[in-house]
Design goal:
By secondary structure, the chain is of the alpha/beta class. The protein is built from 14 helices and 11 strands. The strands form 4 sheets. It has a 5-stranded parallel β-sheet with strand order 2-5-8-1-9.
């Protein structure tokens, strides 16, 4: 298939993205970048971590997206006293049959909203990690496959430190993207005020089947990724590991560790999904730059020197994007 035919096919297959966007806009005012990133995660089969202060519609956006697709949705409020069994389920003894039966937990759904994920202790995080990576849950001696699509959409509050647990690096790396949510504009805030003064708050309606999403994911994989774009992706990721090779000696004392091969894979998948929602059958450098911060910000480790100088992973990624040669 040549690029022109592929482009026409992608334009036809991606028409549902506008339908999803229109449904989301019924509820979410502004925050288009957040909505785009949620769609990228949905189409690229990647989990999303949303970070922002309370009240920025993180939970509402995730719940609204899940509601537009006729799929099972579970909201789990993470707290310090949460147990793994509260998440994945447990074995219960039946006096009637005189044997243990499996009682499945809320993780057995298509969309999991892990609210304030950094409030749960390590045991709970390890239980969630198996579900995120292996797409299965182990209860007792039995392992159960999770239904597709399966997507963990997590939120965390960056302000509070009391009663929170830092997420293990292994788990953070399982999130395809970490999206930082900002405040709405003045005009958007006025619209939010008006919307919340209505007698009945708007709601999204289901417009798609889960099978449609699974099919769309296969189409996203067909989006063309040129070898020059592949080189661009690997250059960006290698610059986080060996900045001196890209004339970025000033970053050497600031980076404690760079992105793993999972960073390259997710950058490629996210850029393909971003091109798809833009109804394009091929990836261009602007697609890489659009998703790069979200894919890499939680995969670049900072040294104490960087923290002392108030240098963030955002600053480092900006330097890399400004210095790595664009094809």
């Amino acid at each position: 298939m040549d690029i022109r035919e592929l482009n026409e096919r992608i334009q036809q297959e991606s028409t549902f993205v506008k339908v999803l966007n229109d449904e989301m806009r019924k509820v979410i005012i502004g925050q288009q970048d957040m909505v785009d990133r949620l769609l990228v995660g949905l189409l690229a089969n990647g989990h999303i971590l949303l970070e922002g202060v309370p009240g920025l519609a993180k939970t509402l956006a995730i719940k609204s997206l899940a509601n537009t697709i006729k799929a099972r949705f579970s909201r789990i409020q993470f707290t310090p006293d949460l147990l793994p069994a509260d998440l994945i389920g447990t074995m219960i003894y039946s006096q009637k049959t005189e044997e243990f039966l499996v009682r499945k937990g809320p993780v057995f759904a298509n969309f999991i909203l892990a609210d304030e994920i950094n409030r749960a202790p390590a045991k709970v995080q390890s239980a969630l990690l198996e579900a995120m990576q292996e797409r299965q849950v182990t209860i007792g001696d039995n392992s159960f496959k999770l239904d597709e699509p399966f997507l963990v959409l997590a939120t965390e509050n960056p302000l509070e430190q009391e009663g929170t647990y830092p997420l293990p690096e292994a788990q953070v790396d399982r999130f395809m993207m970490k999206v930082v949510i900002g405040y709405p504009t003045r005009e958007e805030e006025k619209l939010i005020l008006r919307q919340n003064m209505l007698q009945q708050f708007p709601a999204t309606t289901p417009v798609m089947e889960p099978a449609h999403i699974i099919k769309a994911r296969d189409v996203v994989r067909d989006v063309y990724l040129d070898e020059k774009i592949e080189t661009y992706i690997t250059d960006i990721v290698f610059a986080t590991r060996y900045p001196d090779q890209y004339k970025l000696q000033k970053l050497v004392p600031l980076i404690s560790y760079g992105g793993s091969p999972r960073a390259s894979i997710n950058l490629a998948l996210a850029s393909k999904a971003y091109a798809f929602i833009r109804q394009r059958g091929y990836v261009i450098p602007e697609d890489i730059r659009a998703v790069c911060h979200d894919v890499l910000r939680h995969r670049v480790g900072l040294t104490y020197e960087a923290e002392a100088e108030n240098i963030t992973s955002e600053d480092i990624i900006n330097d890399i994007l400004n210095n790595v040669e664009v094809p």
